[in-house]
């Protein structure tokens, strides 16, 4: 079995008002060194197979078709072999 | 025979009854609700994807609704030339399915915007607009993610093919930054597909069609649809 973690990022050329708002908050808190805050998504789940190729294919397709929208987002994922969920 | 409107109901739709009420009670057409788990459009002549928060807007607006069983039938209907109008969340669903190009981002202000806006009817030669008698109409918006985005190439294509139907404007039809409630590229409020049978728009024509509400500009959109069936 695999544990998958997917990170979804808004593409760099797309405005991220959430990140901008969070960064304004950071400045108010006095964290003046903080810059270029971007907010994305983190998704984790298990894949019930021991076949690496099959697991990779499913995670990639799940990320492409549903978890992210390729027009505005990029994703990357990581697979980790685990004994149980 | 009266034209029949099929109003799709997703879990979380909340403008479905307004749309149904408008086409059936105000404009005297046939109408039927279509539950998202159905696969049959019940011989509808027009499909309405209504506003709301389908599937709680989880993941992205419209992202999960696009896999509802009814959507296979809607996509097939649209690809065969059937008339589909997506309003607000319905527009977001149309973008996710790819029936219309682009995506919706969060409003630039991060605020949910709920107010009447002026819309320039940029293309009055469509099956959704050719009964509109004014250059500028007033229609309410109510959304948190109506900030239309597409890459430059797509935007150019939309312009070249006259697919931009409604743009946020001032009362005289001037496209200004101040008139843009959400940060949409080119002040886009509504677009059609290349074939002209699918319209997505963020403003709510079903909320300004009953004379009791004091504004009936929305009626002209439904009148156009009916006229062209």
Characterise this structure.
The complex is a heterodimer of chains A (85) and B (229). Chain A is elongated, with a radius of gyration of 16 Å. Chain A has a 3-stranded antiparallel β-sheet, with helices on one face. The model of chain A has no long low-confidence stretch (mean pLDDT 95). In chain A, 33% of the residues lie in helices and 29% in strands. Chain A has 85 residues and is an alpha+beta fold. In chain B, strand 10 and strand 11 form a beta hairpin. Chain B is 21% helix and 26% strand. Chain B is globular, with a radius of gyration of 16 Å. The termini of chain B are close together. Chain B has a 9-stranded mixed β-sheet with strand order 2-1-3-4-11-10-9-6-7, sandwiched between helices. In chain B, strands 5-8 form a two-stranded antiparallel ribbon. Chain B is built from 5 helices and 11 strands, in the order βαββαβαββββαβββα. The interface between A and B is medium-sized, with 11 and 18 residues.
Task: Report the portion of residues of chain B in β strands.
Answer: 25-35%
Distance between the termini of chain A: 8 Å
Count the beta strands of chain A: 3
Helix content of chain B: 10-25%
In brief, what are we looking at here?
The complex is a heterodimer of chains A (85) and B (229). Chain A is α+β, with helices and mostly antiparallel strands and 85 residues long.
């Amino acid at each position: 079995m695999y544990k998958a973690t997917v990170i979804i990022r808004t593409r760099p050329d797309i405005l991220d008002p959430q990140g901008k708002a969070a960064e304004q908050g950071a400045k108010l808190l006095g964290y003046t060194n903080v810059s270029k805050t971007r907010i994305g998504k983190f998704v984790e789940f298990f894949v019930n197979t021991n076949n690496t190729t099959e697991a990779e294919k499913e995670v990639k397709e799940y990320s492409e078709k549903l978890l992210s929208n390729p027009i505005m987002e990029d994703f990357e994922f990581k697979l980790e072999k685990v004994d149980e969920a | 025979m009266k034209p029949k409107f099929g109003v799709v109901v997703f879990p979380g739709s909340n403008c479905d009854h307004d749309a149904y009420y408008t086409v059936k009670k105000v404009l005297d057409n046939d109408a039927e609700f279509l539950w998202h788990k159905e696969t049959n459009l019940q011989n509808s002549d027009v499909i309405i994807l209504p506003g709301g928060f389908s599937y709680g807007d989880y993941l992205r607006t419209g992202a999960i609704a696009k896999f509802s069983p009814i959507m296979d039938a809607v996509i097939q209907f649209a690809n065969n030339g059937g008339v589909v109008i997506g309003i607000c969340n319905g527009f977001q669903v149309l973008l996710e399915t790819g029936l219309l190009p682009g995506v919706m981002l969060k409003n630039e202000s991060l605020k949910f915007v709920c107010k009447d806006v002026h819309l320039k009817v940029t293309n009055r030669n469509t099956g959704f607009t050719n009964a509109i008698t004014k250059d500028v109409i007033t229609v309410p918006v109510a959304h948190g993610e109506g900030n239309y985005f597409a890459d430059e190439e797509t935007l150019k294509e939309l312009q070249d093919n006259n697919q931009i139907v409604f743009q946020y404007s001032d009362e005289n039809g001037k496209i200004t930054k101040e008139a843009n409630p959400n940060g949409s590229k080119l002040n886009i409020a509504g677009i059609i597909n290349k074939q002209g049978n699918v319209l997505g728009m963020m403003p709510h024509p079903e909320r300004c069609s009953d004379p009791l509400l004091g504004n009936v500009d929305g009626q002209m959109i439904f009148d156009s649809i009916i006229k062209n069936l």
